[in-house]
Structure formats: C-alpha cells, structure tokens
Amino acid sequence: MQVMENLVRTTVGMSTNIVWHECSIGKLERQNLLMQKGCVIWITGFSGSGKSTLASMLNRQLHCRGHVSYVLDGDNLRHGLNKDLSFKAEDRAENICRVAKLFADAGVICTASLISPYRRDRDACRALVPDSMFIEVFMDVPLKVCEERDPKGLYKLARAGKIKGFTGIDDPYEPPMDCEIVIQLKDGKYQTPKAMAEQVVTYLEENGYLKA
Amino acid sequence: MQVMENLVRTTVGMSTNIVWHECSIGKLERQNLLMQKGCVIWITGFSGSGKSTLASMLNRQLHCRGHVSYVLDGDNLRHGLNKDLSFKAEDRAENICRVAKLFADAGVICTASLISPYRRDRDACRALVPDSMFIEVFMDVPLKVCEERDPKGLYKLARAGKIKGFTGIDDPYEPPMDCEIVIQLKDGKYQTPKAMAEQVVTYLEENGYLKA
Fold first, then answer.
1. What is the pLDDT of residues B115-136, one digit of tens each?
2. Cross-chain CB nearest to B22 (options A33, A55, A106)
3. Which residues form the APS kinase domain (chains A, B) (predicted)?
4. What is the dihedral of CA B198, B204, B210, B211, to 10 degrees?
C-alpha cells in the first residue's frame, strides 16, 4: 500500500516536478529500519489525571526496550513550539497533532499529552493521522480525585476565579466514547506509573507496533 | 552537560510539579540508543538550486547506512504542517525550525529544505537550536543557472509577473556569510545528487554526528 502510494507519488513528481521528492525512503522502509511502527499516542484527561506521568514512564519503558520514542508534552511545548507564534487557541492541539504525525511518519512512537477536552478537537486530530496510527488514551480519573491531588495548584486557582475557562471547573470535558485505551483507577487509587505504562506497551505489542 | 541540565530540570519538576516530566530519558540517552547525534540540516538556496534533490538523496544515503533521518520539505510541508493554520508568513520558517529542533532533540537527523532567503530568518532559526546542532547548507548555484533549469516553471511565471515576490526576480536572496557547508557547481554544472549528499555525509562523519 505504502509502496503503491510511493510509486504514484514518484510518478506525479516526475511528471510535474512539484512534490514528494523524498518518496524514495518511505514510511515502510523506516519501520523496517527501526523495527517498530510509528504512531501517535494521544493522552487525554483532566489536569492532574496523570497524563504527563504516564507519558514520561511510557517513554522510559519504550526506550529501555530499544524503541525510538518521543514525548510532545503540553508543558514543554508551551516553552517551544507554540510560543510567540501567531496561533489561534483552537489551532494549538491541531498543530501539535501535525507535528506528532510527522514523528509517526518518521517511524517514531510519539506521545502527546494534552487535556484536549473537546471530542471534536480530538476527532479532528485523529482524522489527520492515517488509519491505525492514532491511539487515543483516556485517563479515566474522576474530577474529584484530580482536584484533590491538584499537583500544580491550578484547581485552587480556578475555584478562586483566578483562572478562567479551566477544564472541569468552568469548562467542560467530553470523555472519549470509543478510544483505544482507558487507564482507570484501581480500588479508587491511581495505578503506579509503571503499571499504567505497561498497559499501553501491552496494547502496542498486541497490535503489532513493536517488533522484537 | 545534558545530564546536568536534566538534573536541574528534575529538581525543578519535583519542587514545583510544573515542567519537564519527561526528563528521565534525555537527548544523550537517545543519542546512545540511535548511535548518532540528532541535528538540523538546514538547506538554503534559490528555487531550482537542488535543495530537495539533495535532501532526498541525503536521506536515502543516511537510511542505507542505518541512520534515522527525516526530511521536512517546503513542498510536502505546504500540504501538511502549515496548511490552514493561522500563520503569519514570517512565522513559517520558524515553525518548521521548531519542529526540526524537536526531531533533533529526539535524536533524528532532520533535514529542512527551504529557500529561506533572508539572513535574519536563518539566523533566528540557528538561534533556536542548541550549539552545534544546526548545520546550514548553502546551495551556491547562480540565479542564472537555476532559472535556466526552472524545473517547476516558476521563474517563467515570475518573469511574466504572474508570481509576485519571487526570490531572485523581485525579492532578494541573501547568501550565508559563514555556513557549515557550501555545495557548489562543478565545471559550471550541477554535481550529481550522490556527490552532493556525500559531501554532507562526510561533514557529519568528520564532526561526530555519526557513530559506527
């Protein structure tokens, strides 16, 4: 399929000289080199639900198994990718998804963790990424639990009216209806980062993203 | 150095819980896994100077040697990264550079080929990327030669006034004054793509970007 696509692109490129100069090494070749299938792992959930913790531990576990992975994190991207650029707010998630898609195309397992509260925005991201390369992970942690944890003190600020439009307080969160992975509490408590990451790694293994 | 930085970030992370959750696997660890040093190879030059051709062949040569590389190309990015987003024109090169920087941070040898005619814009990109991770490649091909080749027919359109602000015709190109690599004509003719790519690979080898 990819090879076919490349052939088509190459033909287009030769006839018009306009696009897809780089088609000679395609996604499949990169997958074979890296022994893994690039994909976008999109972690969504309330602030304080453990998105960044999961992303970090997942990255570590994949790295230790010799896989090439990278984390695009709301916290660190704020200091880089989207800083100072002329973005509309609603384009931010989409821009991150476009970048994640490029990483996946490059063969990297790319994790993006963003609250991404609206279903339509997450679906728009999914639609950008080719079939089966988008893996949505829902941190299914009740608001109450996240607010009790409040690791950044943001819920306190939001309740005091010092942050407006805060997800869960004065802005809605729409949980996924049909996502690939749901991370849940165990006996009402957060799972360990290791256990959460293993759940995702198992999914990747069982669905052919990781080769030996 | 990187380890130090990570330690600092980790400390910051633990005390405030705000940033750099992902520091546990850093740039150095990724370099060791991939046996290469991620970097941004920024190819600049007139339309028709061979930027995309070089990028494509370089990507192929690196891949065949087992290196992880990726091309961000003005032609393909136009269909993806910057499409429909609320970008000011002057932010485009910078956004591509930020993405390339993320790839380099992930350990990938990331080639970006853009006309990028203004010195201040290229310098701004260089300033975004940590020391020695930005390699500027100048396609030193005279305008006359590029216009004779005119592979996309764009010079013809620009001369006819159908494209405005076209680099070399009614918009300036400022050649680099001190870049890492200069690709020149040989006996007044384009070098082969293979020869051009080998010049860059040799630079990467001699400067420690590629390990065996």
1. 999 999 999 999 999 889 999 9
2. A55
3. 37-184
4. 100
